[in-house]
C-alpha cells in the first residue's frame, strides 16, 4: 500500500528549536516506505466515553476541556550510553476525557522528568503524572495531582470517524502565541500509514488540510461537539497537510489499559505483494474471480508464523474479501489495508483467513499475538541503554536508536552487517535473542588493532554462544582464561584480548573518557 510520502510527528515547541528525530525508514511488516520523518484501574473509560454526534458546544466550553502541557525532558545518549543529554523544555496539548484523565500524544511526554499543565485562564501550573504511554500508537494518559486543576472543567466525548469532505476543528496551543488556537480543516483522506513516533508502526490516520504546527500535538480534532481524533503529524511536503489519530485507534488504546497496563498492538507478521501478475496467478493456480495478496515472507514470532506459507494467496480476513492490492471495503465506500483488521484485535482474539495454497482453498484460524522482537526496531523512549566495555571496546544490544546515532557518528566503515541484521531482526533472530554489536572503541593502545571488528555482531565468547548482553558480560567477567576469544558472525578471524591487560586498561580508559558504571 502506498505510504504518505513525507510525514513529521508534530513536535512539541522545544526551547532550542532542535529537531528531535530524522531518519529514513522502511517498515518491516506492511511494506510501507516513509521518507524523512521528524518529530514535531481505568475501567471508567468503558462506561463514560460515549459517541455523541448531535451535541453542539460553545468555544468557551471547549476551552474548559483543552490543556496546555509543559514538559521538561532528558534522554540518554545511545552512542555514549553513560551520558545523559541536556534537559529541554517543550510544550504540547492535551484534553480531558473520562473522569479527570488527560489524553495526549506519547511523543509529547516521552523522556519526561517533570510535567505540568494549565487550562485556559488558569493562572498557575499544576503538576501532572503519567499513567499510561503507548509508543506504538503515539498516545498517553496523564492525570493532575491537584484536584483544583479540574474545577469548572469539561470532559469530551468521542465521536464517529468523520466523513470525507466534512470539516473538523483542530484545537491546541501551537507555536506563535500563548493563547488557545482553533483552526478549521477538511477531511481529505482516510488510510493506513506509518506513525512517525515509533517509525515502524502503521495504523489508520485521517488527513486534514488544517495547519497542525509544533505545540498542536495531542490536541483534539472536534466535529459536532465531539472529539473525532488527536492531532499528531504533519506532512513535510505541501502546505496545511496534517494528520489526526482516529477514534478506532484511541478506543483500542483505552480498552487496552482497562486492566491497568498497556500491552500493545498485535501483528500478523508477514510480508506480501499484490496479485496483479497474470503469470504468477496462473503459476499458483489462482481462479480468475479470486483476488488477494501473495505471502512473500512469514516473520518469526508473528501471529501467522508456522501457519501461512510463502506463496499462499490470502483471499479474505474475517469474512472480508481482499482486493488484488490487499485492501478491504471499509466504512461503506472506503477501502483500507487488510492489516487494519488485525490492528483492531487484542492478543488472544481469533484471526480467520481464507487462503489458496497450491490451487486449494483452506481456512486458517489462529490467535492474534504481539511480536516482542519489534520492540528493538521501534524508536525507544523512557529507557536506559545497557552496554559493556572490554579493553575500551563498547558493546551494546542492537536497536534503532543506536543505529541512528551510529549513522551520524561518521564511524560507519564496515557497517553493512549492522544495517543488514537490523533490517532483518525479525527473520534472523527470535524474541529471546539480543544481537550484541561492537559499535565503538574508546581509543587506547590496547585496542589499536581492533578496527577490523567494529560494527560486527558477536557470535561466541570463549566458544560459548551469546544470546544477550548479560550472557556476554557474565562470560567475560567469570572467565579465568588468560585470553578472551570473541568470534563475530560471518567472520572467521577472532578478536583475542589478554584478559588481565583488558581489566587494567579499562580502569584507565574509563577515567580518561569519564565513563561511569560498567
UniProtKB/TrEMBL annotation:
Taxonomic superkingdom: Bacteria
Keywords tagged on the record: Hydrolase, Protease, Serine protease
Entry-linked SUPFAM superfamilies: PDZ domain-like (SSF50156), Trypsin-like serine proteases (SSF50494)
Keyword Hydrolase on entry: yes
GO terms, biological process: proteolysis
Residues in PDZ domain copies: 254-322
Keyword Kinase carried by entry: no
Sample GO molecular function, one term: serine-type endopeptidase activity
InterPro entries: DEGP_PDZ (IPR041517), DEGP_PDZ_sf (IPR046449), PDZ (IPR001478), PDZ_sf (IPR036034), Peptidase_S1_PA (IPR009003), Peptidase_S1_PA_chymotrypsin (IPR043504), Peptidase_S1C (IPR001940)
PANTHER family on file: PROTEASE DO-LIKE 10, MITOCHONDRIAL-RELATED, PTHR45980
Entry protein name: Serine protease
Amino acid at each position: 500500500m502506498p505510504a504518505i510520502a513525507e510525514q513529521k510527528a508534530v513536535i512539541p515547541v522545544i526551547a532550542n528549536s532542535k529537531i528531535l528525530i530524522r531518519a529514513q525508514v522502511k517498515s518491516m511488516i506492511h511494506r510501507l516506505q516513509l521518507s524523512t520523518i521528524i518529530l514535531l484501574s481505568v475501567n471508567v473509560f468503558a462506561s463514560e466515553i460515549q459517541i455523541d454526534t448531535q451535541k453542539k458546544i460553545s468555544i468557551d466550553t471547549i476551552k474548559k476541556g483543552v490543556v496546555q502541557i509543559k514538559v521538561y525532558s532528558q534522554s540518554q545518549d545511545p552512542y555514549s550510553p553513560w551520558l545523559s543529554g541536556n534537559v529541554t523544555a517543550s510544550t504540547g496539548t492535551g484534553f480531558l476525557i473520562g473522569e479527570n484523565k488527560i489524553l495526549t500524544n506519547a511523543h509529547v511526554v516521552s523522556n519526561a522528568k517533570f510535567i505540568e499543565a494549565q487550562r485556559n485562564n488558569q493562572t498557575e501550573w499544576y503538576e501532572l503524572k503519567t499513567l499510561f504511554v503507548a509508543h506504538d500508537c503515539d498516545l498517553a494518559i496523564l492525570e493532575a495531582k491537584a484536584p483544583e486543576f479540574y474545577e469548572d472543567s469539561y470532559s469530551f466525548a468521542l465521536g464517529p470517524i468523520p466523513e470525507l469532505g466534512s470539516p473538523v476543528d483542530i484545537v491546541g496551543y501551537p507555536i506563535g502565541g500563548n493563547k488557545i488556537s482553533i483552526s478549521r480543516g477538511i477531511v481529505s483522506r482516510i488510510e493506513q500509514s506509518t506513525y512517525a513516533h515509533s517509525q515502524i508502526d502503521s495504523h489508520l490516520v485521517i488527513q486534514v488540510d488544517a495547519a497542525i504546527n509544533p505545540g498542536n500535538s495531542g490536541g483534539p480534532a472536534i466535529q459536532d461537539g465531539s472529539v473525532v481524533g488527536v492531532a499528531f503529524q504533519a506532512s513535510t511536503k505541501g502546505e496545511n497537510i496534517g494528520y489526526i489519530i482516529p477514534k478506532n485507534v484511541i478506543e483500542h488504546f483505552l480498552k487496552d489499559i482497562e486492566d491497568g497496563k498497556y500491552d500493545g498492538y498485535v501483528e500478523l507478521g508477514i510480508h506480501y505483494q499484490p496479485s496483479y501478475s497474470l503469470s504468477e496467478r496462473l503459476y499458483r493456480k489462482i481462479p480468475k474471480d479470486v483476488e488477494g495478496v501473495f505471502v512473500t515472507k512469514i516473520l518469526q514470532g508473528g501471529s501467522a508464523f508456522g501457519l501461512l506459507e510463502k506463496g499462499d494467496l490470502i483471499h479474505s480476513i474475517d469474512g472480508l474479501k481482499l482486493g488484488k492490492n490487499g485492501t478491504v471495503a471499509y466504512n461503506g465506500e472506503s477501502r483500507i489495508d487488510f492489516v487494519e483488521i488485525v490492528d483492531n484485535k487484542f492478543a488472544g482474539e481469533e484471526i480467520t483467513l481464507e487462503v489458496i495454497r497450491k490451487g486449494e482453498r483452506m481456512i486458517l484460524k489462529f490467535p492474534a499475538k504481539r511480536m516482542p522482537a519489534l520492540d528493538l526496531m521501534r524508536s525507544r523512549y523512557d529507557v536506559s541503554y545497557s552496554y559493556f566495555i572490554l579493553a575500551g571496546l563498547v558493546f551494546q544490544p542492537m536497536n534503532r536508536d543506536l543505529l541512528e546515532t551510529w549513522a551520524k557518528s561518521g564511524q560507519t566503515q564496515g557497517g553493512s552487517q549492522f544495517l543488514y541484521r537490523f533490517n532483518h531482526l525479525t527473520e534472523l533472530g527470535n524474541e529471546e535473542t539480543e544481537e550484541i554489536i561492537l559499535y565503538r572503541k574508546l581509543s587506547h593502545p590496547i585496542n589499536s588493532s581492533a578496527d577490523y571488528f567494529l560494527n560486527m555482531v558477536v557470535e561466541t565468547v570463549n566458544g560459548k554462544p551469546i544470546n544477550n548482553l548479560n550472557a556476554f558480560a557474565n562470560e567475560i567477567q567469570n572467565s579465568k582464561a588468560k585470553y578472551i576469544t570473541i568470534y563475530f558472525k560471518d567472520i572467521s578471524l577472532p578478536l583475542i584480548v589478554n584478559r588481565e591487560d583488558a581489566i587494567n586498561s579499562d580502569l584507565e580508559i574509563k577515567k580518561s573518557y569519564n565513563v561511569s558504571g560498567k
